[in-house]
Amino acid sequence: MIVAVTGVILILFVIGHLLGNLQIFLGPAWINGYAEHLRELGPLLWIIRAILLIDVLAHIYYTVRLAIENRRARPESYRRKDVVKASFASRHMVISGMILLAFIVFHLLQFSIRAIDPRFAALPHDPLGHYDVYSMMVLGFTSPLVSGFYILAMFLLALHLSHGSSSFFQSLGLNNKNLTPRLASAGRVFAWLLFVGYSSIPAAVLLGWVHLRSHS
Amino acid sequence: MNFKLKIWRQPSAASKGELRRYEIEKISANTSFLEMLDILNEQLIKSGEEPVAFDSDCREGICGTCSLTINGEAHGPAHPAAACQLYMRQFKDGETITVEPFRVRSFPIIKDLVINRGALDRIVQAGGFISARTGSAPEANSTPIPKHNSDLAMEAAACIGCGACAAACPNASAMLFTSAKISHLALLPQGQAERSRRVLGMVRQMDAEGFGNCTNTYECEAVCPAEISASFIAKMNREYAIASLRDRLGE
Lengths: 216, 251
Known about the structure:
The complex is a heterodimer. By secondary structure, chain A is mainly α. Chain A has helices spanning 2-21, 28-40, 43-72, 88-91, 93-112, 118-122, 133-142, 144-171, 179-206. Chain A has one domain: 3 helical TM bundles of succinate and fumarate reductases. The N and C termini of chain A lie far apart (53 Å). By secondary structure, chain B is of the alpha+beta class. Chain B folds into two domains: 3-111, Roll (Ubiquitin-like (UB roll)), CATH 3.10.20.30; 117-131 and 141-248, Fumarate Reductase Iron-sulfur Protein, Chain B, domain 2 (Orthogonal Bundle), CATH 1.10.1060.10. Chain B is 35% helix and 12% strand. Chain B has helices at residues 33-46, 118-125, 147-157, 164-168, 175-186, 195-208, 219-223, 231-248; strands spanning 3-9, 18-24, 68-70, 73-74, 96-101, 109-111, 114-115. The A-B interface holds A 1, 66, 69-70, 72-87, 90-91, 93, 163, 167, 169-177, 179-180 and B 6, 8, 19, 69, 71-73, 79, 98, 100, 103-106, 168, 170-173, 210-219, 221-223, 229-231, 233-241.
């Protein structure tokens, strides 16, 4: 139940984060202005960050604890085990989550702490005096390696959520026989829409549709 | 039909087990799986070997005694059916068939394919009953029950307690079993008095027995011979959340 509730908060975050990021398609003024708005939240921003951090840590702590219990519940494994119904996503939640964690750490180092690429810290402010998030994103995703890892991580996020986004209804008891198949399909559609949305940004940068703009 | 068999042999709970190979010939397609094992055992007895120990009772899918994992699926490939309702015509001639026990820590192996499912009995003892006046049967129409509720309760009550749900679950969780027992009584007027105490007690016992947790893969409902729906697990989660809230508020 804790896993479900913390998971829902994280789902809300990835929706919000995607809507924020997609503003890159509206040009530098939009996304840099949006980033500035977030910064202007001041202490509230730090409260949100702290809640998200505690939420992620709780989500990981409880899932790992449950996973260990689950391993212990079958000390001797089957010599042959066939899957009848369980989806690939549902059987690989731990591994998809672990790789996502590695991605989140890299992602924060790259864009929030700006410790990966020295060019980010050296970027001048845009003409309106805002942090130049736009150029940072374009510079970051120009590297096929960074974009590749990003898209792979978004694929795993979609996989994780194609199970997780419908599964939490069941864990919270908000489910019945008629709802199960509908929630499952809705969850899969939702997850793959997230994948398309997030991956569109590095894809657009790599294809040259979104490129650096001079400040003149 | 001829088959190659790989059967789990384990002389006792403490000893190490292994898959041993056997060959069986001239089996009619309409032989049931358990009859095929009977025929194999007769051959083994004739050749002076220890026969394969396996559980069975009614052999018509209503008692929940048989407990084989056949080719990696609890009760074999003929879902929804118990292992006793499986016929050799389901398999290809010459096929290699792997037979293992239900592998769950809470179901310790007694010998070969025979397991101890006492854990499920202890879950029921922790609240899966109603404390009612015994004696002559009461007048049937004196307690009105809505048709929808009686149908749902009947669906849950169809559980035969075989443990295939825990055997098939990647986490060896017995939630489908426990949720069926809880839902069956929670849906009926007779079950109301002990409704909160029942769900709290049974879930606590289920955890104490060392079963795993539900990750909603729904493998359980796919192999259940009684076709119990995993939506009863959602109902159990609902019942548990409400009961623990009530318990904390001192009700």
